[in-house]
Write a structure and sequence with these properties.
- The chain is α+β, with helices and mostly antiparallel strands and 206 residues long.
- A hairpin with a 4-residue loop joins β8 and β9 (192-196).
- The chain has two domains: 7-66, no CATH class; 83-117 and 134-204, no CATH class.
- The chain contains six helices and nine strands, in the order ββββαααααβββββα.
- The chain is globular, with a radius of gyration of 21 Å.
- It starts with 6 loop residues before the first strand and ends with a helix.
- The strands form two sheets. Strands 5-6-7-8-9 form a five-stranded mixed sheet. It has a four-stranded antiparallel sheet with strand order 1-2-3-4, with no helix packed on it.
Length: 206
């Protein structure tokens, strides 16, 4: 039984991604229209589209534009860049460590260790039963936001806590803290992860 305001998964034609959406019109059984939580655009609901379907749609559109038949497997660079389920969330920091030739994670831990040893930081208290989950925190922080409040995530940009970013895989996110000069943690609806930032263009061209 669906009702207006319910959250539903579907394909957003504006984001061109599978996104989280809110039901805008329904008769209780069939969903007629939805509002995307990432771009806040309203449209007729479409079920989630698999990666194969999205690729086939893109190829069909490109073939129509160029007048040439396009086929074959996607380029190797696209396959390497494909997001994998259960990936290592520390991968960006590991890549950053390799780029700079030093252990960024160890340096971040070394900054925190003296403070913890001095007793300035209290031990973590047991989590109360009613404490918000990360998804609930994300909903509260993004309730009054839209895609216009954020900027597409780029590893060359510098971020600070509270900045709103738009990630091509995770959607709308809020920067939580700065881990290192070139890394920050970002809270998305489905996870809180570490992303690179303030990377020099010269490093990307190597």
């Amino acid at each position: 039984m669906r009702k207006v305001g319910d959250e539903i998964d579907g394909y957003c034609p504006r984001c061109r991604l599978n996104t989280y959406q809110n039901v805008a019109a329904t008769d209780g059984r069939e969903v007629f229209s939805v509002t995307c939580r990432t771009c806040r655009n309203s449209f007729a609901w479409k079920p989630e589209m698999s990666a194969e379907e999205q690729r086939a749609k893109a190829i069909k559109k490109l073939s129509r534009m160029t007048g040439k038949k396009i086929g074959g497997p996607p380029p190797e660079v696209v396959q390497r860049g494909k997001r994998k389920e259960g990936g290592d969330l520390d991968a960006p920091l590991k890549a950053l460590s390799a780029l700079h030739g030093r252990d960024v994670l160890a340096e971040a831990a070394a900054r925190v260790a003296p403070v913890a040893a001095s007793g300035a930081v209290e031990e973590a208290a047991p989590v109360p039963a009613g404490q918000q989950t990360s998804t609930e925190r994300w909903r509260q922080l993004t309730d009054a936001l839209s895609w216009r409040d954020g900027k597409p995530y780029q590893i060359t940009r510098t971020y600070k806590p509270g900045d709103v970013v738009l990630h091509k895989s995770h959607g709308l996110g809020i920067v939580q803290e700065i881990v290192h000069d070139n890394a920050c943690t970002v809270l998305f609806r489905d996870l809180e992860t570490t992303l690179q930032m303030a990377m020099p263009l010269s490093a990307l061209e190597r």
